Amino acid sequence: MPDQNHKKAKTININLTEAEYEKVKQLAEVRDLNPTAYTRLSALGNRIKPTVIQPESERITELENENKDLKMKLMVGHSEYEVAREDFDNLEEQYYQCAGYVNTFRDFLKYVQNDAEYINLNGYKNDEKLKSDIRDIIRELKD
């Protein structure tokens, strides 16, 4: 007589249409399962997080429509926030001037120890380009 702990596994066969099988296969793949495991878990009432599968072409169309809507909103709001060319040019000039300061400061920081307690003045004294850049910045800031 067979032991109660060694019951033989039972098999259930189901027939699916091609479309049904593809849907089960896609749902299983999204969850990193094979179709058999997905079907077994679903049939046993395990909650498997639902996932909406949307064909790529539909999603692409949806994204293109969203893109068009955003472009339209941008064009409508564009005139409200229009900046005069002169103001833009002034801001751009200030930006590049500040970027130059930042780059010079970064070059100077090469001679400063990480804890900011020590500055290698010998290295700084030998860096003629950096000294020249700092002199130029000092002149600009005084004016």
Short structural description:
This protein has helices at about 20-30, 35-45, 55-80, 85-110, 120-125, 130-140.
Q: Measured on Cα atoms, how large is the radius of gyration?
A: 34 Å
- The structural domain count equals 3
What are the segments in which pLDDT stays under 50 over at least 5 consecutive residues?
A: none
How many helix segments? 6
Q: Based on helices, strands and strand pairing, what is the structural class?
A: mainly alpha
Helix and strand element order: HHHHHH
Q: What's the overall average pLDDT, rounded? A: 81
Strand content: under 5%
Give the biggest beta sheet: none
Protein name: CopG family transcriptional regulator
Pfam families: NikA-like
InterPro entries: NikA-like
Organism: Staphylococcus succinus
List keywords for this structure.
mainly alpha, 143 residues, 6 helices, NikA-like
